[in-house]
Amino acid sequence: MSTNLLSTSAAIGFGGVVQEYLWNWENQQLRVVYETLGKGSPLLLLPSFSTVSTRLEMSELARLLAPHFQVVAIDWPGFGESSRPSLNYQPEIYQQFLEDFVKAIFNTPITAIAAGHAASYVLQLAVKQTAFSRIILLAPTWRGPLPTMGASQQIAGIVRELVRSPILGQALYKLNTTQSFLSFMYRRHVFTDAAKITPSFIEKKWHTTQQPGARFASAAFVTGNLDAVHKQADFLELVQSLTVPLMVVIGESSPPKSREEMNALVALPGVKSVVIPGSLGLHEEYPAVVLEAVQDFLFSPEN
Fold first, then answer.
1. SS3 category, 41
2. How many CB atoms lie within 10 A of CB 36?
3. Residues 181-198 pLDDT 10s
4. Cα 210 off chain centre by
């Protein structure tokens, strides 16, 4: 495994120092891009998994946090500006990556803020070892879109293999990443203010989806192949096993099934929570509201 850090000049970031972490998985080297902004105690920002996943969805929140923390935001392997090889993307890849990255970049337990599907991976690492001093989960989820819609593992597996196939897969992926479809999905369950879903905003999201190899990790997420747990009980057990403070931020307009899962999570003893405007993309749509909601938790010495 390599922990070489190399500056990247062509990356599009949010004003921080953009670097690459060279990481090996099964004898294949992956280039993982991350960005650092600010000074102070380290804080790790983990974007949600999605077809349009990129650290840039955390950009405004990163800027707001930078006066108080040394903020590090990543592009997950297979997403954003990181390498997107045609791997069989599965939880083991991201579990090992997160463990190795945290160990290589930080030398003390850090604050972690994780959005969406990143929640399970942060919780698993926190239970496994003392990697984090406190955790904030933003609109946490643990089940991918197709399983949430009721698709069986067999159906999800067929869809995943179709999207991975060379010609038909590329065509199917393009149909599901048109700008009109991305706009529809954002209006349906990601943003709540339609005025923010501008043509230029959607064009940037679309550009992210059109990078070489983009369909492989995306298909894995959509079909549930990146679900690190498969039952609500297992997700809640992770939270119950935590030994560090946890806060959960919920969007008041979250999709019904996702909201039910979040409600079960915050009903557990010791879990701090807050409901704010927004849905699954609340960290990108309302970053200032997010910071205001969590600042007491972030800055409280007792945490």
1. strand
2. 18
3. 999 999 999 999 999 999
4. 19
CA-to-CA distance for 15 and 71, rounded, in angstroms?
12
CA distance to 153, 155, 163, 279, per residue, from 113 (Å): 30, 33, 31, 17
Contact present, 122 and 112 (Cβ < 8 Å): yes
Neighbours of 299 (CB within 10 A): 9
Taken as a whole, the chain contains a residue count of 303
Q: What is the DSSP string of 14-34?
A: SSSEEEEEEEEETTEEEEEEE
Return d(Cα 291, Cα 294) in angstroms, integer. 5
Max CA separation in the chain (angstroms): 55
Q: Would you give the DSSP letter of residue 277?
A: S
DSSP track, 56-89: GGGHHHHHHHTTTEEEEEEPPTTSTTS-------
- Whether the Cβ atoms of residue 249 and residue 284 lie closer than 8 Å to each other: no
In whole angstroms, give the CA distance from residue 185 to residue 180. Answer: 9
Burial class of 274 by CB neighbour count within 10 A (0 to 12, 13 to 18, 19+): middle
State yes or no: pLDDT of 6 exceeds 70.
Answer: no
Return the closest-CA partner of residue 93 out of 151, 162, 28: 28
- Of 182, 191, 188, give the one whose Cα is nearest residue 286: 191
Residue from 108, 110, 104 nearest 132 by CA: 110
What predicted TM-score, i.e. pTM, was given to this entire model?
0.93
